[in-house]
Amino acid sequence: MSGKLTIILFFLFLNISFLFPTSISGFNQEEQLELFDNQFSGKIPEEIGQLTSLEIFRFGGNVGIKGEIPMQISSCKELVNLGLADIGVMGQIPHSIGELKKL
């Protein structure tokens, strides 16, 4: 046994309607954060970069999300799946996302 604890949070199709929490860094052990097809609003917080164990971040279908994709997301070096379809972000995709070798 490797002794590795896998933590996964799923909030799918729940019609949850609230601001995306800026305290997301409290979830720093999660490997999967699946929040798609809810009614989150606000912006993806810069604190997303503190989730260094994150392998999967799927957030599509939350059309109330605005702003830009924070460049801090490039600190999530373990990302293999990043799903941001059908959200209201604008601006350029941060160049630093290209540094995520597992994506």
From TrEMBL:
Cross-referenced InterPro entries: LRR_dom_sf, RLP_Defense
Residues spanning the signal sequence: 1-26
Keywords: Signal
PANTHER family named in the record: OS01G0750400 PROTEIN, RECEPTOR-LIKE PROTEIN KINASE 2
Stated name of the protein: Uncharacterized protein
